[in-house]
Specification:
single chain; mainly alpha; about 45% helix
Length: about 140
């Protein structure tokens, strides 16, 4: 099971609207979801993305799932915008990207999101340190 499925998407669009836009091509929604996950995870490199993707904890990652659906909806309605409010969809897409940017910058750290196990791995994290104090002997 992925982080979001086409069935989870019914919180953002009616099933009839999804069917009208996809026109029988069930892969189009799955492709929009995959695109959204790929785009969002570009902002989340400091987290353990494998653990997040395989997690069954829907409560901890609820906000991420909502943002992914907002992004996926924007990519999905590019096919056709039957019964969708483009302005609202664009606004929610922009909001989702802004929240992901805040997480990327370290302004926001979502509670409980999986971080890599290797504590020495500083990829994506900004750290500052100095050299140890030098002792001079005369």
């Amino acid at each position: 099971m992925g982080l979001i499925t086409p069935e989870d998407f019914y919180t953002h669009m009616y099933s009839g609207t999804i069917e009208a836009i996809s026109d029988g091509n069930e892969e189009s929604l799955a492709e929009a979801i995959d695109t959204a996950i790929s785009e969002a995870f570009g902002y989340l490199s400091r987290f353990d993305l494998d653990a997040i993707m395989t997690s069954d904890d829907r409560k901890t990652y609820a906000n991420l799932r909502t943002w992914l659906k907002d992004i996926a909806k924007w990519h999905f309605i590019n096919i056709c915008n039957v019964a969708t409010d483009l302005e609202l969809a664009k606004e929610r897409y922009d909001d989702a990207i802004e929240r992901l940017k805040d997480i990327q910058k370290g302004i926001v750290t979502p509670k409980g999101w999986a971080l890599p196990q290797d504590e020495n791995d500083q990829s994506g994290a900004f750290t500052v340190s100095s050299r140890p104090k030098r002792e001079n002997y005369y």
